[in-house]
Queue: 3 jobs
Job 1
Amino acid sequence: MIGYPLSHTFSPSYFAEKFKQEGIEDAEYQAYSIQDAEMFLGLITADHVGFNVTIPHKEAVIPLLTSLSDEASQIGAVNTILVQGDELIGYNSDVYGFRQSLERWAGSALADRALILGSGGASKAVQYVMSQLGIAYQIVSRKADYLQYSELTPAIIDSHRLIINTTPLGMSPQVDSCPPIPYEYLGSSHQLYDLVYNPEKTLFLQRGEAAGAMIKNGHDMLILQAEKSWSIWNQTEGEY
Ligand SMILES: NC(=O)c1ccc[n+]([C@@H]2O[C@H](COP(=O)([O-])OP(=O)(O)OC[C@H]3O[C@@H](n4cnc5c(N)ncnc54)[C@H](OP(=O)(O)O)[C@@H]3O)[C@@H](O)[C@H]2O)c1
């Protein structure tokens, strides 16, 4: 894995535990804390089958790669790299992780209109999945080109039953913060999905739950995207 800084990252301990549990003795998952994405090329040895990429290199790594999957190319962000000889192929396994976890959670009850809070890297993967699923969405952001948090009326909240937090608001240790949406307009037909997984129940989810909404955190997505990366490196799935 490459990123900076990498002090609190989940993947190294996840893969160490996976290798132990599954008796995989010929694999190792290492974290390389590099400040500059270009340092990545100097790290690659014949032993590497792939890399995960995290903040802040998900976009900066793209020009260093040989090719991209359709998803990574459309989203403009890579979180998984497959090393194949001299080729470096970029993928985005967040798309798979988010879609699978969303569908397993809400299934056929999934709302048909969504608000996506935040417009960063994870938001782009979420937007891609919304388009795949035919769910109409609006992005809510601090940036002027999108719907503003202060513009969220009862009518908008009422007509968008799926609300997805892709901002880091509420993430440990800032557990007392949450996206500034009008929680008082939420009801039991709303579905709140938070990409944040630590704490397990963010303030965003607590306030949704108090209003009777269905709630889901980003833990399953995290596991699913890690397993997808593993299958990409092992090339165990035909569609890659
Ligand atoms: N569960 C998983 O598997 C998974 C996968 C990927 C990411 N995540 C989580 O998703 C979160 C976002 O990750 P990312 O890679 O997309 O980060 P990012 O590229 O930095 O984007 C985060 C976005 O959140 C908004 N934001 C940031 N600070 C804010 C604030 N103080 N108030 C309101 N909005 C704020 C910004 O959007 P605007 O400028 O549009 O307001 C920003 O673009 C992180 O907590 C990350 O851990 C989880």
Job 2
Amino acid sequence: MIKQFKLLIEGYASIVANEWIVNSSTCFIETDSSKIIVDPGCNSDLLLQKLFENNIDVNDINFIFITHSHIDHILNFKLFHNAKLLDGYFLYDGDRLVIHNSAIFNDITILQTPGHTNDHCSMIFEFNNIKIAIAGDVFWWSDNEEIKFDTIDLIYREDKFASDFNQLVESRKLLVLNSELIIPGHGKSFPTTKLREKL
Ligand SMILES: [Zn+2]
């Protein structure tokens, strides 16, 4: 059972004077047995502030899940001294590394969603009767882009960092078809209902 879910940080991305200012969305999930941070991001001051505001102790976190290996999503993982690191394939505990099956948490599904990167994964779970997908950079855009959430354009929009655009489109469809609310890696969360009808 998912006891708590919080979007701690809404990811952002903008270009200022030829420089990206960027940080991933960061989520907190509490299950019966685990406290999980998904994509701890790279802005450590902001993350520590949000943890404090939400009464979350860094030492209580036992898992960090990363959607993919881009640094703007993972740099802060070392703040969590008691946490094991998890991606879509492996569980890292210090120098120990095991392959996990994707059902490592009860009530959370880990899906392979390649295309932005080859190793990209997403999480899907139900909280307060809403099926939520933490999509990482399957969906992301910069702050100044105008996004029409309920149009099919969202599925086919360009990603200049994509490793395989066709795979990315399939991963986007998979998440839209299997969730009601999507949390992108950078940008505002959006409901999928209207978009799903168009697939
Ligand atoms: Zn990103």
Job 3
Amino acid sequence: MNAIEIRNLSKSFRGMYAVDNLNMTVPVGAIYGFIGENGSGKSTTEKLICGHLVPDKGKIKLFGRDYKDAGVRVRVGALIENAGCFPNSSVWDNLMMQAINLGLKNRDEEIRRVLEIVRMEDSAQIKFKSCSLGMKQRIGIAMALLGDPALLILDEPINGLDTDGMRIMREILVDITQKYGCTVLISSHILGELEKIATHYGIIRQGKMICEISAQEMENRARVFVSLKTKDMQGAKDALQRKFANVREEDGYLRVYDVNNTESIVEYLLKNGHVVNEIKKNKIGLEEYYIELMSKKEGK
Ligand SMILES: Nc1ncnc2c1ncn2[C@@H]1O[C@H](COP(=O)(O)OP(=O)(O)OP(=O)(O)O)[C@@H](O)[C@H]1O
Ligand SMILES: [Mg+2]
């Protein structure tokens, strides 16, 4: 079953399409990385799923049911833009107000549960305004987790976090899916971080979904290349280009694409008078996949 299934969704603002015939499929249990340039329509799509905006047309199904169905709406938690907390109230009180709003029973227990998930059990009495950015983002997630949702929608939750903040956020998101069986849709520009946790990706451009792929598929399809350094880079590049179809210089390395055998390259270069100083096998990562996809679509 899919947690989210969107077909031909469109939303325009003053005649301009922010979301344009978009399709999206998010399987249950996925951490779905939603990627796209600024203004490509990520937040608008997320707001449509959450019912904060009304679509012009299209279908949104959550867990196989229409997204307007009250029974399914209560299974969705979201953090879009900011958490909407009161700065002078404590973390606990902010969560309590939201728990009351949601009409939750066992409120104390539920607040303790979400604080534990976001690793903030010891920070409940701190005023929201005194929390660091990383803590504020985690409080936002805790708010979204109240009521035990089956789907969590997070808009750029790792923006502005430091290395440690990102690591904690990664651990929390993996916990949410693996321990609590929640599906997570997360938009982000930080592809290197997303790559560490996402199980699926959706790439949006000018309101259209241009590619949906699982991390496994991407791994299987990823182009391999060998990167190397020699003393005479230009001479080695010329020699390699006579034998291999795709040789490029990037970040101070020569890259030979679609080749896996380092020995044959070393041998070939040696025959042509070039000693290899450094050589390693690589695979194209999410960032390069994304850049390649974008440049293809732009016809570069
Ligand atoms: N309420 C609104 N009124 C008018 N235009 C809007 C509104 N919300 C979004 N837009 C426009 O819709 C387009 C998509 O915006 P959206 O915020 O969904 O992009 P995004 O992918 O989330 O971008 P970012 O990465 O900057 O957050 C943009 O051109 C934006 O200006
Ligand atoms: Mg946005």
